[in-house]
Amino acid sequence: MAALLVGCGGESSDHAAAKPKTTAPAHNMDDMSGMAMGDPSATAAYKMPDAAVVEGTFKLLDTRPPGLDHVKGTAWLAQGPKGTTVTVKLTGLQPGASYMAHLHARHCSADNGGEHFQFVKGGPAKPPNEVHLMFDADSKGVGMTTVNNTRKTGKGAVAIVVHPSDALDNRIACADFAF
Fold first, then answer.
1. For position 78, what pLDDT does the model report?
2. How far apart are CA 109 and CA 37, in angstroms?
């Protein structure tokens, strides 16, 4: 958990890709084991009925590890009657590798997204106080997942950052949401 907090600026968020109901790997975050942090078969944020949807395009960050120079993708954040839904889809990832994404409280241009967005600032650095997405890239390097939170982020979650799950201090890409 300490690596998660240090690597991503103090808080965390959710993401998933190639298999249903991904949970955090026990070797990274023991106290988050069993928490749903993404479901690639869930209704995507951009398809949520009666929801306001914002979209962001991922941009590579200088802190990315070697071999991830071709990562591209999109993130969607929907807010509606059922709370907040976030979907990410990325290509150019290392096939079979695990990744994590988090909502952030600052734009990508401000310290690569700064700290994680939290519903209760200073609260627990895990769901449900943060939105985390865990996912694995498929054999073609594609990762996609969706996660839901019963609360709305409002305009407080302005970006999303993706990391390799085994090197959370290496931010790969960031996407600003266009509110």
1. 98
2. 26
